[in-house]
Amino acid sequence: MRVLVTGGTGTIGTAVVAELLANGHTVLALARSDASAQTLKAAGAEPLPGTIADLDVLRAGAAQSDGVISLAFGRDYASPEALAASIAEESAAMAALGQELIGSDRPIVTVSGTPWVPGRASTEADPARTDGPVGGRARSVNELLELASRGVRAAAVRMPRTVHNQGDGGFAGLLAQHARRTGTVGYPGDGTQRWPAVHALDAAALFRIALESAPAGTTWHAVADEGDAVLDIANVIGQQLGLPVQTVPQEDFGPFGVIFAMDQPASSAHTRQALGWRPTHPSLLDDLKNIQP
Question: Where is this region: Disordered (predicted)?
Answer without folding.
Answer: 115-137
